[in-house]
């Protein structure tokens, strides 16, 4: 099928290349010229495992092209909208400027029978409004939220764990939209991927509800970490023990510096803001607590570093290992790790921050920070703080690192190090919510 993908960021670039892998012919459209030039040359503008190979293969096949001109969408049957919905400045609500502009820009190039498919995460009610914009062209609109995780984005797109279609209210329109989406996802459907076909509002809500649940799960265990810290309990053992209950499950119960990224933090805020607009703010009041618990964990990491340094970080060299919001990503949006580096720097510590992939993005946002290799960060450090659990940090040898630093003080902001090994090597180890 011929399709267009509007927005070629973390979501759209992966979606475009993955659709080609599924046999389709795709044009990716974005307003960012540099991004489009890189993609057209088969180069990934982001760090996402598997994406560089997939781009080379897809562009090489001749079935993946890129353009900055929305007119390139003409002739496609399906048009995916995969632009960002960041948090609005000075508010909790989502900024829908890019979604609105993407749909508006498509209108002159839509033909009778085309399907515009929203993938961006939007406040409930958006699809209904956009459908009204699209209808006069003879095209229709569906909402098809994306559940991909960065670091696994290619796999999650090609083999999703579920498909959700938000379809038009008119039965005929819904049937035609469903048939087109079924053709797009024929491979996943043939593999028995569960499908929920529903209305716009449910499809929009599924996405934010899923992210709200995940955020709540993480903040729940981080709240238990706070209580563990006050009582001498160990939150990792607690998580293991409650996780054996299949109804609870152990996944997403890792206490640490908290969640970040381009989705969870802004999605729970936008969800609360939307609930307030609907006069149902009370129903989601708990998400404010979820956010609060999450932000307190960053303070706690900084507090632990300062405490371990004897009450002041001033003029102390601190190695900050990790800047990305999670491993296997270069994404620093709302990253607790980068936040910790910035705050320690603000306290007068001589921070040297490192990350396998996220230094360039971090430097653009915080040029005041000093960045270096892992070795440069560790050399003569008065304290080491691990804030993103990259494999190479988890596998650091405490003996070797011990010979590089000035003081063997380590704060494990992700509870990802082997406590016994670090303590045996003479380190003063502090985890999050751990004895
Ligand atoms: C998330 C959702 O998982 C995905 O379904 C949705 O489409 C987009 O948002 P992503 O932002 O890639 O995906 O990251 P995810 O793996 O969910 O992690 C989010 C944050 O939570 C990270 O900062 C991670 O470090 C943190 N986290 C995760 C924890 O602190 N503890 C955990 O147990 C799990």
Number of domains: 3
CATH class of the largest domain: Alpha Beta
Enumerate the distinct ligands. Answer: uridine-5'-diphosphate-xylopyranose
What is the CATH architecture term of the largest domain? 3-Layer(aba) Sandwich
Shape: globular
Distinct helical segment count: 18
Helix content: 40-55%
Give the full name of the CATH homologous superfamily of the largest domain: NAD(P)-binding Rossmann-like Domain
- End-to-end separation: 57 Å
Quote the average pLDDT: 98
Quaternary structure classification = single chain
Q: What does this 3D model show about the protein?
A:
The structure is a single chain. The protein is globular and about 70 Å long. Helices cover 44% and strands 14% of the residues. Strands 3-2-1-4-5-6 form a 6-stranded parallel sheet, sandwiched between helices. It has a 6-stranded parallel sheet with strand order 11-10-9-12-13-14. A two-stranded parallel sheet has the order 7-8. Helix 11 (264-277) packs antiparallel against helix 12. It folds into 3 domains: 2-193, NAD(P)-binding Rossmann-like Domain (Rossmann fold, 3-Layer(aba) Sandwich), CATH 3.40.50.720; 208-291, Orthogonal Bundle (N-(1-d-carboxylethyl)-l-norvaline Dehydrogenase, domain 2); 297-430, NAD(P)-binding Rossmann-like Domain (Rossmann fold). By secondary structure, the chain is an alpha/beta fold. Residues 146-150, 211, 214, 218, 252-254, 256, 258-261, 263-264, 325-326 line the site of uridine-5'-diphosphate-xylopyranose.
